[in-house]
Every structure is written in C-alpha cells, then in structure tokens.
C-alpha cells in the first residue's frame, strides 16, 4: 500500500504542476509514501514543515484557496487533533461561506489505527470526527488498489479530503490495475458475495472481516462483505441493498465504540431498512479506551477475526440460518 500511495503522488505531481506536498518529514519519508518526491520535484513543491500541525494545516488551506492542489501529510492520524482548527473551521466551510467563489483542493493525509504498538498518541482511527464536520470527504482505503485510486481522485477533487491510510496494512502487497487507476470517492465495494449475513468492514477491518468470513464458510455460513471506501459520504445504497439481501448486519470499525461509523451505519439501516432485519445489528469496535502500547493488550483491544466470527454466530444462533 505504501508503494501504491507513492505511485499516486508521483503520477499526480507529474500530471499537474499545481500539486504540492507539505508536511512532517515528507523529504525524509519515514513511512516511505513520499520517498523520492523531493529529489524529483524539488523543495518548491515538496516542503518539510516544522512540527506544528496547526501551522501546516492552515498553510494547506491557504495554498489551496490560492490555486494549488495541496497534499498535507500529518504523518500519524492522531496529529489531526492539533490541526483541527483549520480543518473544522476553515477547510470544511469556506466554499459555502464564500458562495463557491474559492475552491479548496486539499488532501489531509495520515496513517491511522493500531497493530504496530505505536501507543495511545499514534494509534487512533479518527475518521468520525472529520466526517461529522459535513464538509470534508473521508477516504478509508483497505487495499493497495483503492489506496492509489482514492488518493488520485482525492487530489483531483475541488473539495477537502481526509485520506486515512491504515497503519497496519502499509506493508501488504496487492494488485493494482494498469493505467490511470482512479476510484470514485463515494463507491462502496462488495468484496465478497453472500446470503446469510452482511459485514460492513471499514479500512483495515476488511482483512479481519475476510478472515472471519473464511472461517464462517467452513461452518456453512455465507457472508457478504461491503467495504464502504469512504466514511463520509457513505454509499448508502450499497449498504442497504446488501442488508435487504441478507437480513443481518455486523459492522466492523477500528474506531472506539462511542465515536464509530458503526453507530452511524446502524442508525442508517434502522431508519431505511428496518423491516429487512431479521436480527439486531451488532457493531464490532475498539473499546472506549486509549490504545495500549503493549502488543498483547493492543491485540486484545482492536477487533480481530474471532470477534467478528462470534458476532455472526450470535446472529445465526438467535435467528437460525
């Protein structure tokens, strides 16, 4: 996935000279996703910033309003909290407040989620706080192809986008279609067809859901998996169509329970497809605690395949297959 993101940045910077990259260690590229950009495009278009997220997010909004297409790399997703003023009070509102007189093509990019023992200040998956603003797309890729395709689309979009790459999947291999591969921002993907239960899996949780579905298949349970690809806006039609087909829903989200997209998806289905449900909706999320540094404790906190299997088995037991 890291290489896919790097390819997307190279291709978009080659395609459009207005694309610039600013952020934390984008020159040194600690993660590898911006590797080589500084050598190829120079310091006028690739700029290391002081470690002040408030400054860099404000600069990103201003540069986007001035006509650049900005990628602002915040490194870890937790750092969006200190960058939030420019995102929440400016980026999400300026197109409306200027009556559309300015565009804001800015991508705030960060790695989020656990799985690498990065401790509480580096392991959040904060897609919901950004989604709640109502004026920022939130892209949550789950594989290499979607990471590249969603990022290329995000850079070309005239509205702000929060691109949340899953930390735990950065080094995984994956196929990417040839050519100018883009993925629409609001286009859920049914990654697995099934009849008995729908699992909506966000970001890194797609891998967890797929492993659970493989285990459940051995028990004769047919699972359908929907990857939303974006937390905001949601592709409601795809989710509702799957629930109407299976009648059961499990939502797997790495965010904490109190602030998860699982809550929003559950409310959506209750409002618009309640009559199709054969059983209660079960969210599988991270507990409402800071993510632990200890690898065993972190593993116990973050949803795993066994948690998803147990949720599905509970639904099947309550309603019959």
UniProtKB/TrEMBL annotation:
It comes from the Bacteria. This is Alpha-ketoacid dehydrogenase subunit beta. Gene3D superfamilies: 3.40.50.920, 3.40.50.970. The keyword Acetylation does not apply. It comes from Flavimaribacter sediminis. SUPFAM superfamilies: Thiamin diphosphate-binding fold (THDP-binding) (SSF52518), TK C-terminal domain-like (SSF52922). Signal peptide: none annotated. Its cofactor is thiamine diphosphate. Residues 1-172 form the Transketolase-like pyrimidine-binding domain. GO terms for molecular function: oxidoreductase activity. Keywords: Oxidoreductase, Thiamine pyrophosphate. InterPro entries: THDP-binding (IPR029061), Transketo_C/PFOR_II (IPR009014), Transketolase-like_Pyr-bd (IPR005475), Transketolase_C (IPR033248).
């Amino acid at each position: 996935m890291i290489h896919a993101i790097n390819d997307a940045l190279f291709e978009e910077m080659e395609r459009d000279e207005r694309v610039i990259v600013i952020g934390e260690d984008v020159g040194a590229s600690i993660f590898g996703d911006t590797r080589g950009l500084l050598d190829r495009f120079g310091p006028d278009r690739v700029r290391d910033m002081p470690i002040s997220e408030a400054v860099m997010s404000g600069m990103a909004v201003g540069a986007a309003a001035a006509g650049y297409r900005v990628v602002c790399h915040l490194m870890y997703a937790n750092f969006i909290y200190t960058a939030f003023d420019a995102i929440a009070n400016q980026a999400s509102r300026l197109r409306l407040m200027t009556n559309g007189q300015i565009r804001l093509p800015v991508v705030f990019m960060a790695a989020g989620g656990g799985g690498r023992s990065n401790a509480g200040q580096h392991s959040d998956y904060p897609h919901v706080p950004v989604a709640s603003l109502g004026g920022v797309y939130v892209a949550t890729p789950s594989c290499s192809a979607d990471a590249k395709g969603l990022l290329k689309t995000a850079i070309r979009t005239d509205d702000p986008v929060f691109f949340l790459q899953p930390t735990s999947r950065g080094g995984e291999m994956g196929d990417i279609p040839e050519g100018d591969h883009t993925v629409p921002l609001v286009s859920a993907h049914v990654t697995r067809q099934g009849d008995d239960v729908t699992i909506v899996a966000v970001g890194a949780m797609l891998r967890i859901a797929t492993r659970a579905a493989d285990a459940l298949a051995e028990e004769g349970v047919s699972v359908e998996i929907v990857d939303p690809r974006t937390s905001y806006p949601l592709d409601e039609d795809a989710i509702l169509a799957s629930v109407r087909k299976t009648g059961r829903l499990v939502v797997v989200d790495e965010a904490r329970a109190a602030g998860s997209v699982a809550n929003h998806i559950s409310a959506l289905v209750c409002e618009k497809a309640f009559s199709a449900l054969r059983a209660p909706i079960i969210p599988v999320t991270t507990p409402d605690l800071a993510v632990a540094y200890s690898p065993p404790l972190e593993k116990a906190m973050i949803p795993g395949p066994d948690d998803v299997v147990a949720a599905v088995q509970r639904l099947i037991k309550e309603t019959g297959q």
